[in-house]
Fold these 2 entries.
Entry 1:
Amino acid sequence: MAAYDLYVVTDSEVGLGRSHLEQASLAVAGGADVVQLRDKGMGTAALLEEARAIRAVTEDAGARLIVNDRLDVALAAGADGVHLGQDDLPVEEARLLAPPGFIIGVSVGTIAEARAAVDGGADYLALSPTFSTGTKADAGPGHGLAALREIKSAVAVPLLGIGGIGPENVAEVIAAGADGVAVVSAVVGQEDAVRAARRMKTLITAAKADMLVASGRLMPDPVQP
Ligand SMILES: Cc1ncc(COP(=O)(O)OP(=O)(O)O)c(N)n1
Ligand SMILES: Cc1nc(C(=O)O)sc1CCOP(=O)(O)O
Ligand SMILES: [Mg+2]
């Protein structure tokens, strides 16, 4: 199954003046598994050009590229997938247009939305938002970790947390059952975005190892004498 551990979303406002391509390059240098190109204001031709440039960078790094909202741009750029919200192109329609293996992610806030998205062909879900965030003005209040646990137990596809997640709370999001976290400010909003991504990745890996130990599927490291 594809790794979604650290999923970095680019943002022209939060990204400290860096282009989407620069943000993507820093994110993968820090170990991001997935980069999402997200821009609400760019024209289609410019977005496609940016997506193609990022495609080269993610491919070199062995990371995946997801384009937000725009299935057409994702397909034209040779991206790995598209991310769709509840008001975007319905996942069933996208699935009909997408080639085999193309990744479709869907934002959900309830178990009903999660089940509908999976039935429609979603490859992964994001609990949107997990905590409140200042990065997306219309995100609304956070659904919290109880909702994350409930949705995780109701579906069989990877579930990500998004919204208000950073080094201070990523471990609890993973411990609640998230397969990964999608972040903006915790990586692209940081002066040293490579270091920030590395730190997030280390925390995610450690939280997943803790869960395996707790479940008895991994032996803890021996204590050194
Ligand atoms: C990984 C991920 N999760 C959620 C979203 C939000 O999607 P949406 O609700 O369609 O809102 P916009 O991002 O389009 O404003 C996302 N982009 N990525
Ligand atoms: C792009 C996006 N979508 C969200 C959703 O809830 O659907 S929250 C969000 C931005 C998340 O930014 P930060 O990591 O800085 O909180
Ligand atoms: Mg959208």
Entry 2:
Amino acid sequence: MRSYLDLVVPVKRLDRAKSRLVGAADGGIGDRRAHADLVVALALDTITAAAAADGVGDVVVVTSDPMLTAVLRAEGIRCVPEAEPGLNEAYRHGASLLGRHVGALQADLPALRSEELAAAIAAADGKRAFVPDRQGTGTTLLIAAPGEPLDPRFGVGSAAAHRSSGAIELIGDWPTVRCDVDTEADLSVAAGLGLGPRTEQRFRLSA
Ligand SMILES: Nc1nc2c(ncn2[C@@H]2O[C@H](COP(=O)(O)OP(=O)(O)OP(=O)(O)O)[C@@H](O)[C@H]2O)c(=O)[nH]1
Ligand SMILES: C=C(OP(=O)(O)O)C(=O)O
């Protein structure tokens, strides 16, 4: 019997997150509220799809942002503050609060479909594995082997770092798992795959 995979999803403070997308939201470059709303929409669409995927157990968001924490908790999503700054630190902290089979999911996958995430998790088949981003250099999903530490190596060139950590590269027909959005061009690609409802609304407002 396969164990459920618990997922950690870290998100930076909203005033620092998604800096390459500043100006993509409704009011343009000076509209900080609209930018924060876009980051929240990306995270909520990602987490909602992830939590509904077959094979996923608990999901914990690691963030020290008060507004994001309030919004996510109102949606019934578990949030914990960072224990120390940094992306890999946030992943390790979240993983320490979860069960024996843990994974790391990026928070900027607004086209994510539950079935595609479930297929990627099933393909890992209990081994340490990762899904590279659309460009092949970053990582959108890292899965530890059951009972093993997450050992996250996110950051520039994380696909190579995860490969050299012994993780199997998962390449399959799951474009929405690979489509992280760092730029407006990425957002357009995600829109082509079909955005989640909250991001769709923000993207329409800005179009
Ligand atoms: N909790 C937490 N999350 C982080 C931290 N650094 C990055 N993240 C999250 O990890 C993901 C990838 O982060 P980055 O690529 O560094 O930054 P970004 O917010 O996506 O975009 P840019 O500002 O354009 O680089 C995003 O979902 C971030 O919110 C951190 O120090 N703490
Ligand atoms: C941190 C990463 O993602 P990005 O900078 O693309 O958000 C990564 O792929 O390891």
